[in-house]
Structures are given as C-alpha cells and as structure tokens.
Amino acid sequence: MAKCAICEKAAHFGNNVSHSHRRSNRIWKANVKSVKVKTEGGVRKMYICTSCLRSNFVERA
C-alpha cells in the first residue's frame, strides 16, 4: 500500500457497522498519487497525498 513521503499518510483500517450492528472489515485508503517532484538530487518520482500537493509542501517537476 502506498504511503505519502511527506506526512506518511496511509490506509486506515476499521469496521463497517450495519443497521443490525454486525461488523465487517473495512479499509479507508488515503488519496495518494505518484508525482514527479523536484529534489536536491534532481527529479524523482514519489508518492504524495493530495493534501500535501495542495499545501505546496513539494514542487512538481
């Protein structure tokens, strides 16, 4: 599973709870994209979540 390279946001696990209160497994996936990013060493592909992209924590190549 992909994880954000900046804030390390990843998938979260929990339960679906039905009306009768039966539980089944559930996963919430983070909105993580593969993006080309400018770094000191040049251009690199990294997994970045959309909230970090929107907040300008990285500069796109």
UniProtKB/TrEMBL annotation:
Keyword annotations from UniProtKB, A to Z: Ribonucleoprotein, Ribosomal protein
Gene name of the encoded protein: rpmB
GO process terms (BP): translation
Residues that span the membrane, as ranges: none
Annotated HAMAP family: Ribosomal_bL28
The organism of origin for this protein: Stomatobaculum longum
PANTHER family membership: 50S RIBOSOMAL PROTEIN L28, LARGE RIBOSOMAL SUBUNIT PROTEIN BL28A
Family from the record: Belongs to the bacterial ribosomal protein bL28 family.
GO-annotated molecular function: structural constituent of ribosome
Gene3D superfamilies: Ribosomal protein L28/L24
Presence of the UniProt keyword Ribosomal protein in the record: yes
UniProt-listed Pfam families: Ribosomal_L28
InterPro entries in alphabetical order: Bacterial_rp_bL28, Ribosomal_bL28, Ribosomal_bL28/bL31-like_sf, Ribosomal_bL28_bact-type, Ribosomal_bL28_sf
CC per GO annotation: ribonucleoprotein complex; ribosome
Protein name: Large ribosomal subunit protein bL28
UniProt entry tagged with the keyword Ribonucleoprotein: yes
